Amino acid sequence: MDIFLQLTVSGLSTGMIYALAAAGFVVIYKASDVINFAQGDLLLLGTYLVFFAVAQTGLPWSLGVLVTVLLAVAVALAIERLVLRPLIGEPIISMIMVTIGLSSILRAAVNAIWGPAPRSFESFLPAGDVALGPVVLSSGRLLSIPIALVVLAALWLFFRHTRDGIAMRAIADDQQAALSMGISIPRVFGIAWGLAAASAAIGGIMLAGIVGVSPNVTSIGLRVFPVVILGGLDSIRGAVIGGAIIGLLEVYTGGYVGHGLSLVVPYVVLVLVLMVRPYGLFGKEIIERV
Amino acid sequence: MPILEIRDLSLRFGGVTALAGLSMEVCHGELLALIGPNGAGKTSVLNCVSGLYRAQKGTIDLKGRDGASHALHRLAPHRIAALGVARTFQNIELFKHMTVLENLMLGRHVHMRGGVLSGGFYVGRQRRAEIEHRRAVEEIIDFMNLEPLRSAEVGNLAYGNQRLVEMGRALALDPLILLLDEPTAGMNAEEKESMARFILDVQEERGVTVVVIDHDIDVIMDISDRVVVLDFGRKIAEGAPDEVRNDPAVIDAYLGHAREERAAVGAGT
Lengths: 290, 269
Hints:
The complex is a heterodimer. Chain A is mainly alpha-helical. Chain A has one domain (about 1-115, about 125-220). Chain A has helices at about 1-30, 40-55, 60-85, 90-115, 140-160, 165-175, 175-180, 185-210, 215-220, 225-230, 235-255, 260-275, and strands spanning about 130, 135-140. In chain A, a hairpin with a 2-residue loop joins strand 1 (about 130) and strand 2. In chain A, helix 1 (about 1-30) crosses helix 2 (about 40-55) and helix 1 (about 1-30) runs parallel beside helix 5. The model of chain A has no long low-confidence stretch (mean pLDDT about 90). Chain B has 2 domains: about 1-85 and about 175-270, Rossmann fold, CATH 3.40.50.300; about 95-175, no CATH class. Chain B has helices at about 40-50, 75-80, 100-105, 120, 125-145, 160-170, 190-205, 215-225, 240-245, 250-255, 255-269, and strands at about 1-15, 15-25, 30-35, 55-65, 70, 85, 175-180, 210-215, 225-230, 235-240. In chain B, helix 3 (about 100-105) packs parallel to helix 6. The longest helix of chain B has 21 residues, at about 125-145. The chains are: A mainly alpha, B alpha/beta. The interface between A and B is medium-sized, with 27 and 34 residues.
């Protein structure tokens, strides 16, 4: 039982980091129909940026986190402005291909700046353990769950209630109509990329504390895809629940069956979901009428 | 007094000339019909005015609410909308996954303030603004008899109703000038009649200047104050509906008679 609880906390904390990265993916997809293959690399960037801000620059944690998020947003805005904005109006597929290129470039840039060796540093998440009766839980992991949930709830509220969030949904639905309603597409795309980077950076900050800073984060970033396929490409709620399910499945499989299988499970889920329910748990069911 | 002034507008797509030095005016408060054979450039005019197309040559000036003249040919589509130019589309462009109410609320977008963060903060002020936008939208729902459909998802509505919602959404912008691209296309006689009445009401009761493209000549002749006839991206006639109806150039354009002659002249020069 105590093992089960430990695995559950560990699975949920991993899952919430997946959810943060996935929510960024969803924001971009909702606003522009672009599948952002570089989303996992924004997570990677987040881990290194916080390492830079805190360990290399020596900023205090509170400031370091802020600087990390701001730097990530700046990078995303630069990407949007320089690479994606010129492609507005081109077929979606060209934007999607560009994100594949961006993914390699981001990875290469991180490698060039910080090198391939793993780095470690003291996390702001408390290092100790919390004992709940017989169960010992990592307090860092425990704490990361509510932090992630607050960020995700903020994103969800943004979509439902703010002018720009609603404009984003409108653009995704019909770009021409959105233009004629006075919605500025460059502004909305910029906001989408900024939010996606901010959310991934927060995921990256927590990841840096839990598993450390290394190029391996890329493989964690890839989990974004099973998560969004399961949750639905255009649903923040789906990203949260999909993240939790994938995180838990992975950890339970690792804990009860074996580590090797746990690496594969997310992708098995991906294939199954595509076969059974291609729009995911909360995705919009697209019905084409002919 | 013109509210919209188009001067020498030329638009080409590769080798195809959509507009060839078109000049025309829209007067304040009038209901102007834009007619012409298929491919005459009618929709291109609307697309240039609303900023979706950028003409290679020529100017489009709008006399704004502030009384100043705005060069629309240099503005992005969202700025043009903010100046009070609203439109509908030939192939209905609605937010299909949203409800009728949400579609109309999006029409209020240009009147809403608030950035990414402030939306969360100024709750009081935000709320008051929201109530005001609701009221404007409810009024349009009443006006266009959309009450029974308000929470229906737009993608599921019948074609004629979708056209009404699209026009309602354009009205929600509280426009200075409303551009309607074939508002009665695909409608039956009864639906056409009620649409024609809405268009007249918009002009008369709300004081909105209207430019309408339509292929239904009877509707056009019934409702419009003035007609501009386009052919090959040029204005070939304009005037009151009766004058235009009997204009030989217009009859030729529609019957295709003049085309061969013009081609012959073109080859000769």
